[in-house]
Amino acid sequence: MPHRPLRFQTRRSILALLLTLTVCFLFRIFSGSPLPQLSCLHSFRRPQLSDAVSNQGSLSVPEMSSKWKVPLEVHIMSKCPDAKTCLHDLVVPAMQRVFDKVDFKLSYIGTATDQDDGIACMHGPTECLGNMVELCASQLYPDPKIYLGFTMCMTEQYRHIPERNLVEDCAAEHGMDFDKLNECVSDEGHALELLRESVERSANASVKVSCTVRLDENVRCVMDGGQWKNCKNGSSVDDLVRDVGKLYNATNS
Questions:
Q1: Whether 109 contacts 209, CB under 8 Å
Q2: pTM of the predicted model over 0.85
Q3: Prior bond to 80 cis, omega within 30?
Q4: Which contacts (CB < 8 Å, 24+ apart) does range 50-55 have?
């Protein structure tokens, strides 16, 4: 059963909320104290990007190409166990093989409320904050082969998002400057605006389930309740890689 969304404050108190979130984030970052935990699926071993990893720990960046790339967008919630399964079992291993053929994007699912300028996240304010951290990572390090790895690292221990040790360890593992991430999230209004834009993007695509994988702007597969759904052409890594290749070759041939 879905959790009832927890909403942020009204327009009149949005600034106060931002300041509260900032203080809360900085306290968690510098104290390392635990956040409330949710129930969790059993742990997975994070897939390694060994087949195409550079000495810096991220996938090597391909040369610029004028060829059209297939839009591949994944819609998630940072504290959702289905997002963990989806990234681990499908998205990350597929990206190892098609990163040079896709225009990849991670978007986040929530609820934007026009009446009070609020944002609701299914798993509560800590999820909204986790979404902000990951969105800041994608803005500061726009190469998806870097920020996807960071997001996978965070999602591996989603119950602990956004504790200091987790953010620091994942940032270090993927060559990110922790202080820059902290500065981005602590910037009043900026991180919340990133979240709002991402949530609105998911809403405009009529995506409500984490995790939803869209290929060429069409729903390709959905991980919901621990099961793959709406995967017309199969849910395996090979299936997704095949479909990307067909679209890429058909347009660029």
A1: yes
A2: no
A3: no
A4: 51/96, 51/97, 52/96, 52/99
